[in-house]
Design brief:
Elements: E1 3-8, H1 14-28, E2 32-37, E3 52-58, H2 66-74, H3 76-79, E4 84-90, H4 98-115, E5 121-126, E6 128-129, H5 136-149, E7 159-160, H6 164-182, H7 191-199, E8 208-209
Parallel strand pairs: 1-2, 1-3, 3-4, 4-5
Antiparallel strand pairs: 5-8, 6-7
Helix pairs in contact: 1-6, 6-7
Length: 210
């Protein structure tokens, strides 16, 4: 069993839900996973107490949550010594369009350049439009963004674009990678299962190895 920190930033809760799903997959493999909101990090939290770390953030009007950027920057030395992953949610990853996918990848590149962190695994997933939770001005801005991205401009309803099968596949891939790196065999698996799983390329929406 390994300990995995899943630290995330969220606007209206979609990234928090993704973080919970990641934790559930890790737990199913017999690992001790903990999800923490980047805006509510305990003062005594130390990256060194975890075997692996997964950071998650969403894109809101072109930017990630500042708390996640600051955490990655402040802890990049500790992150560099253990298996890590980065998960990003955005409308750009919600559509099958080459230009939008490139845009989503560009957000990640900016994040990594700004923080100086290089994760081992990266997953790009569609986020959500929570019109019901937006204030008046933000609802107008998000409607304008959605018009060009997904076309979902009916503000009387919310929209979810996250592919949960891809999220679970990403979590399993990262867990297998961590197990191989640390030489850990999860309950019910054999050493061969760990090696085979970690060697597979994750084919999720825009996921890539760095």
């Amino acid at each position: 069993m390994v300990s995995i920190l899943v630290l995330y930033g969220t606007g209206e809760g979609q990234t928090a839900t993704v973080a919970e799903r990641l934790v559930a997959v890790f737990a199913e493999r017999g690992h001790d996973a903990t999800a923490i909101d980047a805006d509510d990090v305990p003062s005594d939290l130390e990256v060194e107490t975890f075997d692996a770390v997964c950071l998650g953030a969403s894109i809101h009007m072109g930017s990630h949550q500042s708390a996640v950027r600051e955490f990655a920057s402040d802890n990049r030395d500790a992150l560099a010594t253990r298996p890590t992953a980065f998960v990003q949610l955005s409308l750009s990853s919600a559509v099958d369009d080459e230009g939008r996918r490139a845009e989503a990848a560009g957000y990640v590149d900016d994040f990594l350049e700004e923080t100086g962190w290089q994760p081992d695994r990266i997953g790009l997933f569609g986020g959500a439009l929570r019109y019901s939770k937006y204030g008046f001005l933000k609802r107008l801005v998000m409607k304008r963004i959605a018009r060009d991205a997904t076309g979902d401009t009916d503000t009387s309803q919310d929209y979810e674009y996250t592919d949960w099968h891809e999220v679970e596949a990403f979590a399993a891939d990262f867990a297998a990678f961590v197990e191989q790196r640390l030489g850990v065999v999860p309950p019910g698996a054999t050493a061969g299962d760990v090696d085979d799983g970690a060697d597979e390329e994750h084919a999720g929406d825009g996921a890539r190895d760095e």
